[in-house]
Specification:
The chain is of the alpha/beta class and about 325 residues long. The protein has 12 helices and 14 strands. About 40% of the residues lie in helices and about 25% in strands. The mean pLDDT is about 95.
Amino acid sequence: MTNSYILAGDLGATKTNLALFDASDLQAGAQAEASYLNADHADLPAILRKYLADKDAQAIHTACLGVAGPVINNHVRMVNLDWEVDAAALCAEFSWQAAWLINDLKALANAVPLLQPHEVQTLQAGVPEPGGTIAVIAPGTGLGIGYLTSAGGQYRAYATEGGHASFAPETVLQQELLAWLRPRLGQVAVEHVCAGVGLPNIYAFLKASGHAPEPEWLRAELDRQGDDNNVIIVQHALAQTAGAEICALTLQLFVEILGATAGNLALGLGATAGVYLGGGIPPRIQAALGRYRFMDFFLGKTGYEDYLARFPVQLILDPAVALLGAAAYAQQQQAA
């Protein structure tokens, strides 16, 4: 490598994605993309050492990592993973000129203005307001929520911890779900029912409450799968497998809650320039968004249906765009 490169990362609860970007041409796209399971490594530096082993480290001058957790003074203690990450320590070990840790949703939101038409699917065209606020909601392992505001013709991204706000049920079945979860979890956050960690909670409620039986063959399949049962649940829900109605109802509840939560976010922020649905789960369940009436629950705010109908709603098809957002943040900081 002869150019100057930015190392971009997306550090989630389950895995870490890394890539390099040409600092002078981000739109050339990610290079040397790689993904690592966090459970297989002691900490982030161990992953970085493995990734950089066959790279020209001297060509990598800066880094930006989107991290699942609140970042304070370029340091983060991750929420769903027992790791701490410090930017200064990373610079010292890897000889970077500068490094930035930002919330993973800030990284994703930062990529939104750079998205190309083929990287999104329109769920509602709406009537976008130029320079209006943009909302971003991203269910992955956890639920990330962020937004962008415009000033001087440039958008600036912000992260929130809105995924930890309290779950507000909208149907009788959702009320039962909340009542079942509360003695088990205490405060029931929307993340507990609207993210990767939420699918097993919904499934367990439906099974325990008797709303949907679990056949023995499905239990055996889930046991064989191990810790990550979401793959099996989503697979049978999308296929509408006979006898696996519990999976379909699990995904239905998930989509309903996601739609309502996205609508709440849109109203709360006044997201007149659009609502972007990102994260690892939505691209995998595209068919379910229509089947289980995501947009109906998004629009279902009494008296505000017409207002919300003006908000564009876009599905981000590639979760890896968060890497682009992280690289763009590093570029922005260098130019500041």
